[in-house]
Design brief:
351 residues, alpha+beta, Phosphoribosyl-aminoimidazole Synthetase, Chain A, domain 2
Length: 351
Protein backbone atom coordinates (compact mmCIF):
# COMPACT_ATOMS: atom_id res chain seq x y z
CA UNK A 1 0.00 0.00 0.00
CA UNK A 2 1.27 3.49 -0.89
CA UNK A 3 1.89 5.69 2.10
CA UNK A 4 -0.29 8.82 1.74
CA UNK A 5 1.49 12.16 1.47
CA UNK A 6 0.26 14.13 4.47
CA UNK A 7 2.26 17.30 3.72
CA UNK A 8 0.19 20.43 3.02
CA UNK A 9 -0.86 20.61 -0.64
CA UNK A 10 -0.33 23.86 -2.55
CA UNK A 11 -1.57 25.20 -5.88
CA UNK A 12 2.04 25.66 -7.04
CA UNK A 13 2.97 22.05 -6.25
CA UNK A 14 -0.13 20.89 -8.11
CA UNK A 15 0.95 22.80 -11.21
CA UNK A 16 -0.25 26.42 -11.00
CA UNK A 17 2.19 29.09 -9.83
CA UNK A 18 0.25 32.25 -8.98
CA UNK A 19 3.43 34.19 -8.22
CA UNK A 20 4.87 33.38 -11.65
CA UNK A 21 1.62 34.62 -13.18
CA UNK A 22 1.91 37.87 -11.25
CA UNK A 23 5.50 38.33 -12.46
CA UNK A 24 4.36 37.76 -16.04
CA UNK A 25 1.73 40.51 -15.68
CA UNK A 26 4.40 42.93 -14.45
CA UNK A 27 6.62 42.08 -17.44
CA UNK A 28 3.91 42.80 -20.03
CA UNK A 29 2.54 46.08 -18.66
CA UNK A 30 4.73 48.33 -20.80
CA UNK A 31 4.03 46.33 -23.96
CA UNK A 32 0.29 46.57 -23.39
CA UNK A 33 0.48 50.30 -22.62
CA UNK A 34 2.32 50.89 -25.90
CA UNK A 35 -0.80 49.90 -27.85
CA UNK A 36 -3.08 52.49 -26.26
CA UNK A 37 -5.19 54.45 -28.74
CA UNK A 38 -8.15 56.85 -28.55
CA UNK A 39 -11.17 55.10 -27.09
CA UNK A 40 -9.36 53.01 -24.48
CA UNK A 41 -10.81 53.48 -21.00
CA UNK A 42 -8.86 52.49 -17.89
CA UNK A 43 -5.66 50.50 -17.57
CA UNK A 44 -4.48 46.89 -17.46
CA UNK A 45 -5.56 44.85 -14.44
CA UNK A 46 -9.34 45.15 -14.37
CA UNK A 47 -11.81 42.34 -14.84
CA UNK A 48 -12.78 43.63 -18.30
CA UNK A 49 -11.35 45.84 -21.02
CA UNK A 50 -13.28 49.03 -21.69
CA UNK A 51 -13.47 50.93 -24.99
CA UNK A 52 -15.53 54.03 -25.82
CA UNK A 53 -16.77 54.04 -29.40
CA UNK A 54 -16.43 57.35 -31.29
CA UNK A 55 -20.00 58.06 -32.39
CA UNK A 56 -18.94 61.15 -34.31
CA UNK A 57 -17.00 58.84 -36.63
CA UNK A 58 -19.61 56.05 -36.57
CA UNK A 59 -23.06 57.63 -36.01
CA UNK A 60 -24.74 54.31 -36.82
CA UNK A 61 -22.06 51.83 -35.80
CA UNK A 62 -21.89 48.19 -36.69
CA UNK A 63 -19.49 46.20 -34.51
CA UNK A 64 -17.50 43.51 -36.27
CA UNK A 65 -15.69 40.68 -34.47
CA UNK A 66 -13.24 37.93 -35.36
CA UNK A 67 -11.34 35.24 -33.50
CA UNK A 68 -8.50 32.97 -34.54
CA UNK A 69 -5.27 31.35 -33.39
CA UNK A 70 -1.76 30.74 -34.66
CA UNK A 71 -2.12 27.02 -35.29
CA UNK A 72 0.86 24.72 -35.39
CA UNK A 73 3.23 27.55 -36.23
CA UNK A 74 3.46 27.61 -32.44
CA UNK A 75 5.07 24.17 -32.54
CA UNK A 76 7.90 25.61 -34.63
CA UNK A 77 8.25 28.42 -32.08
CA UNK A 78 8.39 25.87 -29.28
CA UNK A 79 11.02 23.75 -31.03
CA UNK A 80 13.11 26.83 -31.82
CA UNK A 81 12.40 28.41 -28.41
CA UNK A 82 11.55 31.67 -30.19
CA UNK A 83 8.27 33.29 -29.20
CA UNK A 84 8.94 36.95 -29.93
CA UNK A 85 7.09 37.24 -33.27
CA UNK A 86 4.28 34.66 -33.29
CA UNK A 87 2.03 37.10 -31.43
CA UNK A 88 2.04 39.24 -34.58
CA UNK A 89 0.42 36.31 -36.38
CA UNK A 90 -2.31 36.06 -33.75
CA UNK A 91 -3.28 39.69 -34.32
CA UNK A 92 -2.96 39.37 -38.09
CA UNK A 93 -5.30 36.41 -38.41
CA UNK A 94 -8.04 38.39 -36.65
CA UNK A 95 -7.69 41.97 -37.92
CA UNK A 96 -7.19 40.91 -41.52
CA UNK A 97 -10.52 39.11 -41.29
CA UNK A 98 -12.12 42.33 -40.01
CA UNK A 99 -10.80 44.33 -42.96
CA UNK A 100 -12.55 41.99 -45.39
CA UNK A 101 -15.78 43.88 -44.67
CA UNK A 102 -14.01 47.25 -44.37
CA UNK A 103 -14.05 47.41 -40.57
CA UNK A 104 -11.48 49.43 -38.62
CA UNK A 105 -9.86 47.26 -35.92
CA UNK A 106 -10.41 48.90 -32.54
CA UNK A 107 -9.17 46.52 -29.89
CA UNK A 108 -7.79 43.05 -29.31
CA UNK A 109 -7.76 40.51 -26.48
CA UNK A 110 -5.55 37.46 -26.18
CA UNK A 111 -5.86 34.05 -24.52
CA UNK A 112 -2.68 32.15 -23.68
CA UNK A 113 -2.85 28.55 -22.46
CA UNK A 114 0.42 27.11 -21.15
CA UNK A 115 1.56 24.02 -19.31
CA UNK A 116 3.71 26.10 -17.01
CA UNK A 117 3.98 29.87 -16.70
CA UNK A 118 7.45 31.07 -17.60
CA UNK A 119 7.18 34.85 -17.15
CA UNK A 120 9.84 35.65 -19.74
CA UNK A 121 8.10 33.49 -22.35
CA UNK A 122 4.77 35.15 -21.63
CA UNK A 123 6.48 38.51 -22.03
CA UNK A 124 7.87 37.42 -25.42
CA UNK A 125 4.47 36.27 -26.62
CA UNK A 126 2.63 39.37 -25.45
CA UNK A 127 5.41 41.56 -26.83
CA UNK A 128 4.67 40.12 -30.27
CA UNK A 129 0.95 40.61 -29.77
CA UNK A 130 1.55 44.23 -28.81
CA UNK A 131 3.69 44.75 -31.90
CA UNK A 132 0.90 43.31 -34.02
CA UNK A 133 -1.60 45.65 -32.38
CA UNK A 134 0.63 48.65 -33.08
CA UNK A 135 0.88 47.63 -36.73
CA UNK A 136 -2.89 47.21 -36.91
CA UNK A 137 -3.49 50.49 -34.98
CA UNK A 138 -5.67 48.72 -32.45
CA UNK A 139 -5.38 48.53 -28.67
CA UNK A 140 -4.57 45.48 -26.60
CA UNK A 141 -7.11 45.98 -23.81
CA UNK A 142 -7.15 42.63 -22.06
CA UNK A 143 -6.25 38.99 -22.03
CA UNK A 144 -5.89 35.83 -20.02
CA UNK A 145 -3.02 33.49 -19.27
CA UNK A 146 -4.20 30.06 -18.16
CA UNK A 147 -1.74 27.64 -16.59
CA UNK A 148 -2.93 24.09 -17.23
CA UNK A 149 -0.60 22.15 -14.98
CA UNK A 150 -1.04 18.41 -15.37
CA UNK A 151 -3.21 18.81 -18.47
CA UNK A 152 -0.51 20.23 -20.76
CA UNK A 153 3.21 19.53 -20.99
CA UNK A 154 5.33 22.16 -19.21
CA UNK A 155 6.61 23.69 -22.46
CA UNK A 156 3.27 23.51 -24.31
CA UNK A 157 1.60 26.74 -25.35
CA UNK A 158 -1.44 27.76 -27.36
CA UNK A 159 -2.57 31.27 -28.28
CA UNK A 160 -5.93 32.60 -29.43
CA UNK A 161 -6.96 36.14 -30.23
CA UNK A 162 -10.17 38.12 -30.38
CA UNK A 163 -10.54 41.39 -32.31
CA UNK A 164 -13.38 43.88 -32.46
CA UNK A 165 -13.76 46.56 -35.12
CA UNK A 166 -16.39 48.98 -36.34
CA UNK A 167 -17.83 50.38 -39.53
CA UNK A 168 -20.69 52.71 -40.39
CA UNK A 169 -23.99 51.00 -41.13
CA UNK A 170 -24.51 50.48 -44.84
CA UNK A 171 -20.83 50.71 -45.79
CA UNK A 172 -19.74 47.08 -45.37
CA UNK A 173 -17.79 45.55 -48.24
CA UNK A 174 -18.95 42.22 -49.56
CA UNK A 175 -20.29 40.17 -52.47
CA UNK A 176 -23.35 42.39 -52.88
CA UNK A 177 -21.07 45.22 -54.06
CA UNK A 178 -19.14 43.11 -56.55
CA UNK A 179 -20.03 43.07 -60.24
CA UNK A 180 -18.61 41.84 -63.52
CA UNK A 181 -15.82 44.13 -64.68
CA UNK A 182 -14.29 44.62 -61.24
CA UNK A 183 -10.57 43.91 -61.03
CA UNK A 184 -8.56 41.85 -58.55
CA UNK A 185 -5.61 43.32 -56.69
CA UNK A 186 -3.38 40.80 -54.95
CA UNK A 187 -1.31 41.72 -51.89
CA UNK A 188 1.97 39.84 -51.66
CA UNK A 189 2.70 37.46 -48.79
CA UNK A 190 6.45 36.86 -48.39
CA UNK A 191 5.99 33.67 -46.33
CA UNK A 192 3.51 31.08 -45.11
CA UNK A 193 1.67 33.58 -42.87
CA UNK A 194 0.04 31.25 -40.33
CA UNK A 195 -1.46 28.54 -42.51
CA UNK A 196 -0.52 25.07 -43.64
CA UNK A 197 2.07 24.52 -40.94
CA UNK A 198 1.05 20.94 -40.21
CA UNK A 199 1.95 20.02 -43.79
CA UNK A 200 5.02 22.28 -43.83
CA UNK A 201 6.38 20.74 -40.61
CA UNK A 202 5.62 17.23 -41.81
CA UNK A 203 7.54 17.76 -45.05
CA UNK A 204 10.45 19.90 -43.89
CA UNK A 205 11.11 18.64 -40.36
CA UNK A 206 9.82 15.07 -40.40
CA UNK A 207 10.17 13.74 -43.95
CA UNK A 208 13.18 15.80 -45.06
CA UNK A 209 14.69 15.90 -41.56
CA UNK A 210 15.86 19.50 -41.87
CA UNK A 211 17.32 21.09 -38.75
CA UNK A 212 15.77 24.37 -37.68
CA UNK A 213 19.21 26.03 -37.68
CA UNK A 214 20.06 24.74 -41.18
CA UNK A 215 19.76 26.96 -44.28
CA UNK A 216 16.16 27.06 -45.48
CA UNK A 217 17.42 25.88 -48.91
CA UNK A 218 20.76 25.60 -50.61
CA UNK A 219 22.40 29.02 -50.59
CA UNK A 220 19.71 30.61 -48.39
CA UNK A 221 20.73 33.42 -46.07
CA UNK A 222 18.00 32.46 -43.60
CA UNK A 223 17.53 29.31 -41.56
CA UNK A 224 14.56 26.97 -41.63
CA UNK A 225 13.41 28.51 -38.33
CA UNK A 226 13.79 32.05 -39.71
CA UNK A 227 11.65 31.20 -42.71
CA UNK A 228 8.97 29.29 -40.82
CA UNK A 229 8.75 31.95 -38.12
CA UNK A 230 8.60 34.85 -40.57
CA UNK A 231 5.74 36.96 -39.16
CA UNK A 232 2.63 37.58 -41.21
CA UNK A 233 2.27 40.92 -42.93
CA UNK A 234 -0.69 42.75 -41.37
CA UNK A 235 -2.63 44.37 -44.21
CA UNK A 236 -5.55 46.00 -42.39
CA UNK A 237 -4.06 49.45 -41.79
CA UNK A 238 -2.73 49.73 -45.34
CA UNK A 239 -6.05 48.64 -46.85
CA UNK A 240 -7.89 51.22 -44.75
CA UNK A 241 -5.47 53.87 -46.01
CA UNK A 242 -6.12 52.77 -49.59
CA UNK A 243 -9.88 52.93 -49.00
CA UNK A 244 -9.49 56.47 -47.70
CA UNK A 245 -7.33 57.46 -50.68
CA UNK A 246 -9.89 56.05 -53.13
CA UNK A 247 -13.35 56.30 -51.50
CA UNK A 248 -15.76 53.65 -52.72
CA UNK A 249 -13.13 51.89 -54.81
CA UNK A 250 -12.91 48.67 -52.79
CA UNK A 251 -15.99 46.51 -53.18
CA UNK A 252 -14.88 43.38 -51.31
CA UNK A 253 -11.81 41.65 -49.95
CA UNK A 254 -10.69 38.10 -49.26
CA UNK A 255 -8.11 37.06 -46.66
CA UNK A 256 -6.24 34.13 -48.19
CA UNK A 257 -5.76 31.64 -45.36
CA UNK A 258 -6.57 27.93 -45.03
CA UNK A 259 -8.20 26.76 -48.25
CA UNK A 260 -5.91 28.80 -50.45
CA UNK A 261 -6.82 31.48 -52.95
CA UNK A 262 -9.72 29.69 -54.61
CA UNK A 263 -11.29 28.56 -51.34
CA UNK A 264 -11.31 32.06 -49.89
CA UNK A 265 -11.83 34.34 -52.88
CA UNK A 266 -15.07 32.60 -53.81
CA UNK A 267 -16.53 33.77 -50.49
CA UNK A 268 -16.40 37.34 -51.81
CA UNK A 269 -18.17 36.62 -55.11
CA UNK A 270 -21.91 37.01 -55.74
CA UNK A 271 -23.91 34.49 -57.73
CA UNK A 272 -23.45 34.49 -61.50
CA UNK A 273 -19.90 35.82 -61.37
CA UNK A 274 -16.51 34.18 -61.53
CA UNK A 275 -13.02 35.37 -60.70
CA UNK A 276 -10.36 34.79 -63.35
CA UNK A 277 -6.94 34.87 -61.70
CA UNK A 278 -3.42 35.16 -63.06
CA UNK A 279 -0.94 34.92 -60.17
CA UNK A 280 2.14 35.62 -62.29
CA UNK A 281 2.57 39.32 -61.36
CA UNK A 282 3.31 38.21 -57.77
CA UNK A 283 6.23 35.84 -57.26
CA UNK A 284 5.76 32.57 -55.39
CA UNK A 285 8.19 32.63 -52.41
CA UNK A 286 10.92 29.98 -52.52
CA UNK A 287 9.71 28.25 -49.36
CA UNK A 288 6.67 26.91 -51.23
CA UNK A 289 8.70 25.32 -53.98
CA UNK A 290 10.89 23.68 -51.33
CA UNK A 291 7.86 22.20 -49.58
CA UNK A 292 6.49 20.96 -52.89
CA UNK A 293 9.83 19.48 -53.98
CA UNK A 294 10.72 17.78 -50.70
CA UNK A 295 7.22 16.44 -50.13
CA UNK A 296 6.29 15.60 -53.73
CA UNK A 297 3.17 17.67 -53.10
CA UNK A 298 0.82 18.06 -56.07
CA UNK A 299 0.03 21.46 -57.55
CA UNK A 300 -3.60 21.00 -56.54
CA UNK A 301 -2.71 20.24 -52.92
CA UNK A 302 -0.30 23.20 -52.74
CA UNK A 303 -2.99 25.58 -53.98
CA UNK A 304 -5.57 24.14 -51.60
CA UNK A 305 -3.38 24.43 -48.49
CA UNK A 306 -1.17 27.50 -49.03
CA UNK A 307 -1.66 31.06 -50.30
CA UNK A 308 1.43 30.68 -52.57
CA UNK A 309 2.43 34.31 -52.11
CA UNK A 310 -0.97 36.04 -52.25
CA UNK A 311 -2.09 36.97 -48.74
CA UNK A 312 -5.14 39.08 -49.57
CA UNK A 313 -7.19 39.97 -52.62
CA UNK A 314 -9.10 43.24 -53.03
CA UNK A 315 -11.99 43.40 -55.51
CA UNK A 316 -11.92 46.91 -56.87
CA UNK A 317 -13.67 49.35 -59.21
CA UNK A 318 -11.54 49.22 -62.39
CA UNK A 319 -11.63 53.01 -62.79
CA UNK A 320 -9.99 53.54 -59.39
CA UNK A 321 -7.66 50.56 -59.23
CA UNK A 322 -4.61 52.72 -59.95
CA UNK A 323 -5.35 54.90 -56.90
CA UNK A 324 -5.62 51.82 -54.68
CA UNK A 325 -2.36 50.42 -56.06
CA UNK A 326 -0.61 53.77 -55.59
CA UNK A 327 -1.68 53.95 -51.96
CA UNK A 328 -0.55 50.40 -51.22
CA UNK A 329 2.78 50.99 -52.96
CA UNK A 330 3.31 54.19 -50.97
CA UNK A 331 2.81 52.17 -47.79
CA UNK A 332 5.46 49.65 -48.83
CA UNK A 333 3.03 46.86 -49.67
CA UNK A 334 3.80 44.89 -52.81
CA UNK A 335 0.58 44.60 -54.77
CA UNK A 336 -0.43 43.93 -58.36
CA UNK A 337 -3.41 43.36 -60.62
CA UNK A 338 -3.98 39.61 -60.74
CA UNK A 339 -7.28 39.23 -62.55
CA UNK A 340 -10.87 40.30 -62.92
CA UNK A 341 -14.47 39.42 -62.22
CA UNK A 342 -16.55 38.13 -65.12
CA UNK A 343 -20.12 37.02 -65.65
CA UNK A 344 -20.49 33.26 -65.36
CA UNK A 345 -20.86 30.36 -62.99
CA UNK A 346 -19.72 31.25 -59.45
CA UNK A 347 -16.15 29.94 -59.29
CA UNK A 348 -12.50 30.90 -59.19
CA UNK A 349 -10.54 30.06 -62.32
CA UNK A 350 -6.74 30.24 -62.31
CA UNK A 351 -4.88 30.70 -65.58
Amino acid sequence: MTTPDLSPATYAAAGVDIEAGDRAVELIKDAVASTRRPGVVGTLGGFSGLFELDLSKYPHPVLVSATDGIGTKLEVARLADRFDTVGIDAVCMCVDDLICVGAEPLYFLDYLAVGRVVPERIAELVGGIAEGCRQARCALIGGETAEHGGAMEDDSVDVAGFAVGALEKGTAWGPERVEAGDVLIGLASPGLRSNGYTLARHVLLERAGLALNAPAWEGAEVTVADELLRPSVIYSAFVLDAAEAAPGAIHAAAHITGGGLAGNLIRSLPDRTRAVVDRSPLAVPRIFSEIQRLGSVSDEEMGRVFNLGVGMVLIVDPLRADAVLASLSGSGIEAAMIGSVEAGEREVVEK
